Amino acid sequence: MITAFDHFRPHHEELRKRLIRIISAVFLCTLVAYLGKDYIAAFCMQPLFTAAPELEKLVYTKLTEAFISYIKLSLLAGILFSFPYILFQMWMFISPGLLAGEKKAARLIVLWATFLFLGGACFSFFIALPKILSFFMSYAGPNLTPMPKFGLYLTFVGRMVLAFGIAFEIPFLMVMAIRTGIVAPHYFFNKRTWFYIAIMVLSFLLATGELTATVLLCLPLFLLYEAGILAGRVFKGKSKPTSSK
Predict the structure, then answer these.
(1) Does a structural domain hold residue 175?
(2) Is residue 107 in a domain?
(3) Residue 16: which domain range?
């Protein structure tokens, strides 16, 4: 008797093979990143030293803090470095079951999703982060000496880069919701006010309550939301949902 598991077994083996390759790639890239951890850490700390030229070094107050921070930094860098290969393995897993037209659409989806994530990460590191650091370091004075902790600073940078990268996926998610028929093409236009409020709340939470970071995250997200509305109209699917109004 053939069971449902027997039908799924080939897909299970293929998924297992792809996952092993993804984990191996992340591990190898993380190992390479750890070997160059000092250069990566110096690159991440450069915006802080630019914002506060008088600051010469960071500090750590726990014996394990520097080691754990380097591990986290290397893992994050390993994921970023192996990201194209991860997307390739995901593509190799799903492509056999797609039609020619669906394969073309999937390639565009992966391409745009990658560009949006990288765009958000670059915007965070090269534009938002320097302004935020300049604002916070401006409070230093004769009676107030900043002593940023190494681990907390790297966590702050990593969280910002990931938050902006994920947040920049908004147009992509909007277009996918429209094309798959989850919502109608006019849904996001009609609900703009509520989504703007949600964006402000989400930005506040992602920025952990820091007003400057919240504003710097809100403004591009508003523009991306409008871009998502426009892209949804251009790339809307043929089917229309019956439940969303």
Answers:
(1) no
(2) yes
(3) 4-168
How confident is the prediction along the chain (245 residues), in pLDDT tens digits per residue?
Answer: 455 445 545 667 888 888 999 999 999 999 999 999 999 999 999 999 999 888 888 999 989 999 999 999 999 899 888 887 887 787 777 777 666 766 676 677 778 878 888 888 898 899 888 988 888 888 888 888 889 999 999 988 988 888 788 778 888 778 777 776 778 878 898 988 999 998 888 878 766 667 777 787 788 888 888 988 888 787 665 544 444 44
In a domain, residue 20? The reply is yes
Note whether residue 52 is domain-resident.
Answer: yes
Contact between 36 and 124 under an 8 Å Cβ cutoff? The reply is no
**Cα distance from N-terminal residue to C-terminal residue, the chain:** 46
CA neighbor of 112 nearest in space, from 32, 224, 204, 237: 224
Domain count, the chain: 1
